[in-house]
Write a structure and sequence with these properties.
7 helices; 6-stranded mixed β-sheet; 264 residues; Deoxyribonuclease I, Chain A; alpha+beta; globular
Length: 264
């Protein structure tokens, strides 16, 4: 296994609809491992060919038609893959695998939670909080060195959103969500790699709505995507960047890829 690994997390918002920019990204950035969320495709219809052409021969898929879906696509071998049902309803929102050095990668797509931050008025919000609760119980028992990454659908810090004041009651930045995320982080002492390399209060966004006419000019972003590591892997992470330019490519996802380099 290489001493260094470039691992990417990207909510692609339909892998088949965005194959052109995925291929461009593979050519320009050449990650060792690409973790995708919202692939929106059944496993038997996943476009494996384009990845295999570029040397990505290890694919671990958890897909379903039209919605959700996650995948780990790798140039290095993957072992002992798992799919946890943290949503508790069969939705394809997690896939994990072990690297040859024993480190696990867990790729997750946490529910967005609907529009109203109230469990009674909006069952989707309750599902999101319950998903976090199941992940927290899992984290509490976790003994394996792990990289946990994906679309967490919460921007916890004031500098993770374009306006704390305007978003304080908007799903993804409410206090109950921030507290719920903090419990998950504390359960395994997870280290937030994004903020290790780009410290608060520096601006750090990974998502920009399609509604903005000029997303870059208005820059109404949120940090919904995250890379966390077990404490013992903290120093193995050597760099972390958000590839914001990909948000401006032709027919983009509304999320930008997160690129983290590790040295093992």
């Amino acid at each position: 296994m290489n001493n260094s690994l470039k691992i990417v997390s990207w909510n692609i918002n339909s892998v088949r609809a965005r194959l052109d920019i995925v291929e461009r990204f593979l050519k320009e950035e050449a990650p060792d491992i690409l973790c995708l969320q919202e692939t929106k495709v059944r496993n038997d219809q996943f476009p494996e060919g384009i990845f295999r052409q570029h040397g990505y021969n290890h694919l671990v898929l958890n897909g379903q038609p039209m919605h959700h879906g996650v995948a780990i696509i790798s140039r290095v071998p993957l072992h002992k893959d798992e799919r946890f049902d943290w949503q508790d309803n069969g939705e394809a929102r997690h896939v994990g695998a072990r690297l040859e050095n024993g480190v696990r990668i867990e790729n997750v797509y946490i529910p967005a939670g609907g529009e109203i931050p109230d469990r009674e008025l909006n069952p989707k919000f309750g599902q999101k909080l319950d998903f976090y609760e199941r992940m927290t119980r899992w984290s509490d028992q976790l003994k394996t060195p792990t990289i946990l990454l994906g679309d967490f659908n919460i921007a916890p810090l004031e500098s993770d959103v374009w306006s704390h004041k305007k978003l304080i009651n908007v799903v993804s930045h409410t206090q109950i969500e921030v507290d719920t995320m903090a419990k998950l982080q504390a359960a395994h002492d997870w280290v937030d790699i994004g903020r290790r390399f780009i410290p608060d209060p520096e601006r750090l966004y990974t998502w920009w709505s399609y509604r903005a006419r000029d997303w870059r000019a208005s820059d109404k972003g949120r940090r919904l995507d995250h890379v966390w590591v077990s404490p013992e892997l903290t120093d193995n992470a050597t760099s972390h960047v958000v590839h914001e330019d990909a948000r401006g490519w032709d027919k983009p996802s509304d999320h930008a890829p997160l690129i983290t380099e590790f040295s093992f």
